[in-house]
């Protein structure tokens, strides 16, 4: 009787194997393309003068990479890597409704921590580069690149906005959440100063 109970419990070292399997990348192709299109667009933008002297060729290449990135992140990698998706639905009256979904936590197909890190780091870091590029094109007066850079900012930040809304809850207003957080922080600071 005691022997059977011990067989149900994991042996020494098996817990580490379970944790390792959970943090393993289960969707390597989705993880690869999640990072490939966005980093390729940044690299083409940075190396454009070396790759081609034609502005139109570089612009079209970057916009195609950004479009492929937007579609891949919105439709594939968000769903597979972190269990989130968002889309726009138009009803019969012509009203646009934004839908934000997240996979149930108790679902058998839970996400791995490695895939989650890949997704969120790629989703947040790359748009920061496009914002830096936007400021650099304005300050260096390379106005012809401004349309390309703004396309990068808009497409990548649209996915950031959509997935953050999915993560925190689609029905909640992010502006109200920020105000509530800042209000709570301000209240804590006021209470600290009054106690001293």
UniProtKB/TrEMBL annotation:
Ranges annotated as spanning the membrane: 53-73, 118-139, 145-164
Bilayer topology annotation: Multi-pass membrane protein
GO cellular component, one term: Golgi membrane
InterPro entries: TVP23-like (IPR008564)
Subcellular location: Membrane
Domain of life: Eukaryota
Keywords per UniProt: Membrane, Transmembrane, Transmembrane helix
Gene Ontology BP annotations: protein secretion; vesicle-mediated transport
PANTHER family recorded: GOLGI APPARATUS MEMBRANE PROTEIN TVP23, GOLGI APPARATUS MEMBRANE PROTEIN TVP23 HOMOLOG B
Protein family according to the UniProt entry: Belongs to the TVP23 family.
Name of this protein: Golgi apparatus membrane protein TVP23 homolog
Organism: Mastacembelus armatus
């Amino acid at each position: 009787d005691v022997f059977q109970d011990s067989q149900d419990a994991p042996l020494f070292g098996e817990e580490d194997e379970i944790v390792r399997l959970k943090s393993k990348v289960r969707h390597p192709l989705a993880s690869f393309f999640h990072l490939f299109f966005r980093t390729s667009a940044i690299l083409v933008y940075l190396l454009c003068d070396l790759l081609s002297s034609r502005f139109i060729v570089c612009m079209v290449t970057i916009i195609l990479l950004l479009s492929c990135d937007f579609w891949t992140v919105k439709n594939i990698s968000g769903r597979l890597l972190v269990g989130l998706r968002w889309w726009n639905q138009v009803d019969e009256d012509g009203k646009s409704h934004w839908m934000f979904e997240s996979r149930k936590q108790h679902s058998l197909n839970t996400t791995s921590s490695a895939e989650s890190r890949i997704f969120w780091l790629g989703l947040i870091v790359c748009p920061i580069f496009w914002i830096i590029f936007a400021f650099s094109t304005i300050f260096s007066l390379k106005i012809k690149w401004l349309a390309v850079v703004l396309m990068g900012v808009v497409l990548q930040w649209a996915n950031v906005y959509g997935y953050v809304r999915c993560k925190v809850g689609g029905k909640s207003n992010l502006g109200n959440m920020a105000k509530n957080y800042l209000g709570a922080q301000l209240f804590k600071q006021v209470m600290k100063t009054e106690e001293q």
